[in-house]
Design a protein that fits this description.
The protein is α+β, with helices and mostly antiparallel strands. Helices cover 28% and strands 21% of the residues. The strands form 5 sheets. The chain has a 5-stranded mixed sheet with strand order 7-12-13-15-14. Strands 1-3-2 form a 3-stranded antiparallel sheet. It has a 3-stranded antiparallel sheet with strand order 4-6-5, with no helix packed on it. It starts with 9 loop residues before the first helix and ends with a strand. It binds 2-acetamido-2-deoxy-beta-D-glucopyranose (NAG) (2 copies). The site of one 2-acetamido-2-deoxy-beta-D-glucopyranose (NAG) has 4 residues, from helix 5.
Amino acid sequence: MQARRPLGSCAIILFFIIQTATGDTRCLRKGGKCQENSIPCDNYQKGLCNGGRTRQCCISNQVADKPCRDKGGKCQQTSVSCRGTYTSGLCGGSASRKCCVPQSGSASCSAAAAAVACKIKNSSKITLLKINPSQVKDGADPYSNIRDACARKVAKRSSYKCREGQAPGGSTCLDLKILQYIYDLGTSTKYQVQVNAIAGACHSNGSKHYDGKAVDFQLFGSGTAKDAQEKAFRDKCTKHKGWSHGGTHVHCQIV
Ligand SMILES: *[C@@H]1O[C@H](CO)[C@@H](O)[C@H](O)[C@H]1NC(C)=O
Ligand SMILES: *[C@@H]1O[C@H](CO)[C@@H](O)[C@H](O)[C@H]1NC(C)=O
């Protein structure tokens, strides 16, 4: 896409005054609509429409942002932090509106977190589910999360609804503190350790899971055995300065 210029820049308008014989088709082909530039529109492009110099091609951000979406990114103001990198020229709107692409191909999360994730991945004492507990398989399961974190990549979040809320999709770096807890617990406890969810699966809206700062563990057995496992996992969470709850599983979050 061409760089956008401020409206009312006479020199630029004169430069584009040459009308094309093809009429409005150049604008239409770009997914735009020719109209008077006094009508509000996300982006005007000059030189794509028949008629006077004020008749210009209006391209909505929905259309202009497609190159960014195609790259798996999201267009936003660069004042908003981006877990990944900002790329110019893929979004509509002002020059400060850029494409935030989460880095899946290259390192973007902390090396310290990655090192612990690799140790978790490598540990025979820690079982990482390869599917969400809801049986949805979307690449946001604990095994995929840890594999990606080990490669310094962002971990995927799910994007489906459940009784508790709506998982937001997208991705996040896993936090060093929660990874240290998982590793420490997994390599020190006498109980069976199965990770059910980290950044993936569906939880209540705004859950710390979605920030890569929470984990859910499976509880095994029943009665006193289950209670003892629950207590051990929760005590370890407290030791790591986290907050936890038990019940059907142990949830620990460290913020
Ligand atoms: C992975 O585990 C094996 C033994 O199970 C160990 O020899 C190796 O050093 C570990 N690698 C890492 C990166 O922790
Ligand atoms: C969770 O957020 C979604 C929008 O993302 C909303 O539709 C839903 O009602 C929310 N659920 C709860 C339980 O607050």
